[in-house]
């Protein structure tokens, strides 16, 4: 280490604004974000950034929070949670598409700017006939569906870049390796190019999720018991672990 390096480390850290850090981080993008990359873009040492963030994850959380807080919540004029949740899910998906890597951060970290959204969702769900626990569970179900959906999209896109084979092509290849009599339906399905878009599939899955939540809200405890479902989950785990 040179004497100039040593003296630089002993000095005060460079003064940076949140906006400077955010601009540099956004220019790099969340998928490639590193403290070193931001430091280089700002012309400061990595040590200077450690004055603001303890690690790369904390920096990513800062960026994610700044992105999300910029986007307003859907209006709740109808007072109906299902209508609001449908709009919210599509809004969140659009944000994740606009900012690659954001879904991964949302999977891994609790973002401050997400809390008011959770609050509004729970409040509307309570007005729509949920109790507090199921209002929270319904809120989390929609939230986790959206960021898990788009995180899956990003993983598959990255894999396609590495392998040169997208998911549908991979599925057709694997299915074709089976004897036709073993998987006739899958061979038929993959042989046809079902040109459903990601938008159509997202809408189908979202509506199925919301319909299921609605059915659970109105069903009698005898026909839709959470406890019985938990018992089946435990039994399944026991069967799997005994193999």
Question: Would you mind describing this structure in some detail?
Answer:
- By secondary structure, the protein is an all-alpha fold.
- It has 13 helices and no strands.
- It has helices at residues 3-10, 18-28, 35-42, 46-49, 56-69, 81-98, 102-108, 115-127, 132-163, 167-176, 184-191, 198-218, 226-241.
- Helix 6 (81-98) runs antiparallel to helix 8 (115-127) and helix 9 (132-163) runs antiparallel to helix 12.
- The radius of gyration is 24 Å and the shape is globular.
- Residues 1-12 have low confidence and may be disordered.
Which of globular, elongated, flat, extended, rod-shaped describes the shape? globular
Main structural class: mainly alpha
Strand content: under 5%
Order of helices and strands: HHHHHHHHHHHHH
Instruction: Tell me the distance between the termini.
Output: 57 Å
Count the DSSP helices: 13
CA radius of gyration: 24 Å
Low-confidence stretches: 1-12
Overall average residue pLDDT: 85
Q: Helicity level, as a percent range?
A: 55-70%
Please outline the major beta sheet.
none
Number of strands: 0
Detail the topology: elements first, then pairings:
Elements: H1 3-10, H2 18-28, H3 35-42, H4 46-49, H5 56-69, H6 81-98, H7 102-108, H8 115-127, H9 132-163, H10 167-176, H11 184-191, H12 198-218, H13 226-241
Helix pairs in contact: 2-3, 6-8, 6-9, 6-12, 7-9, 8-9, 9-12, 10-11
């Amino acid at each position: 280490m040179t004497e100039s390096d040593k003296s630089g480390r002993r000095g005060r850290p460079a003064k940076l604004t949140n906006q400077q850090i955010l601009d540099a981080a956004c220019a790099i993008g969340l998928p490639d974000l590193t403290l070193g990359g931001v430091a280089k873009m700002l012309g400061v040492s990595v040590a200077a950034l450690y004055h603001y963030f303890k690690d790369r994850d904390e920096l990513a959380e800062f960026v994610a929070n700044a992105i999300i807080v910029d986007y307003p919540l859907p209006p709740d004029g109808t007072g109906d949670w299902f209508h609001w949740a449908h709009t919210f899910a599509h809004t969140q998906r659009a944000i994740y598409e606009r900012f690659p890597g954001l879904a991964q951060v949302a999977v891994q970290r609790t973002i401050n700017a997400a809390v008011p959204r959770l609050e509004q969702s729970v409040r509307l769900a309570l007005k729509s006939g949920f109790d507090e626990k199921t209002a929270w569970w319904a809120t989390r179900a929609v939230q986790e569906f959206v960021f898990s959906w788009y995180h899956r999209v990003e993983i598959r896109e990255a894999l396609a870049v590495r392998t040169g084979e997208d998911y549908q092509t991979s599925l057709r290849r694997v299915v074709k390796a089976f004897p036709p009599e073993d998987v006739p339906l899958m061979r038929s399905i993959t042989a046809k190019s079902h040109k459903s878009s990601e938008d159509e599939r997202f809408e189908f899955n979202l509506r199925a999720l919301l319909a299921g939540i609605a059915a659970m809200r109105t069903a009698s405890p005898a026909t839709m018991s959470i406890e019985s479902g938990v018992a089946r989950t435990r039994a399944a785990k026991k069967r799997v672990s005994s193999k």
